[in-house]
Request: fold
Amino acid sequence: MNPIPAHVAIIMDGNGRWAVQRGLPRIDGHGAGVETCDRIVTESSAMGIRYLTLYAFSDENWSRPVEEISALMDLLGQYLVRKTPKMIANRIRFETIGEIDRLPPSVQSTLQATKDATAAGTGMTLIMALSYGARSEICRAVSRLLAEGAREATQETIGARLDTAAYPDPDLLIRTSGEYRISNFLLWQAAYTELYFTETLWPDFSPSELRAAVEVYRKRERRFGGVR
Reply:
């Protein structure tokens, strides 16, 4: 069997549908999703996962209604303020990927405060993808190369300029809510990532289902283009 994945990435999908099914405003679904996020972060850390990347807000999410975006930013800020002490206690280091400078200044300030407060963490690294799109990330990496005067690009030189340059590629990518696509998430990094899809909406995704996904991963044969 494969060992526990070092890096798990999750597309946290289905908050809005969860709320609609219950006759609730969509933002209530996002609030429920925040609580699920806390449980999954805690479980991932306890399982020995070294890196957990959560797709929290995509490039495309900027097209949502202004009221929903504002509520999402408020939820993000509140989550970080409330959970930073828990991250410190669990030795979790907090980081981000994406175009953070597009976020409201108050959110940027809270993000930086959480990074600073958890910088000494030696346990799991929690990475939030915010205002993130993989195509944009690759374009920004190539633009950095060009600005540096590079005459050619290689996998190594592009990879070193991606937002995720400091982290290993994900071993396992989970998507909730029954959608079977990766939606512009870690396109470069997921070249040989094992994919796991579940019908469960994100607010209902439990630590036990995370463990089940990891067990499925552990039983898969990873050949990376080679032979057994």
Q: What stands out?
A: DSSP finds seven helices and six strands in the chain. The mean pLDDT is 96. Residues 7-132+170-219 form a domain with the Undecaprenyl pyrophosphate synthetase fold (CATH 3.40.1180.10). The chain has one domain: 7-132+170-219.
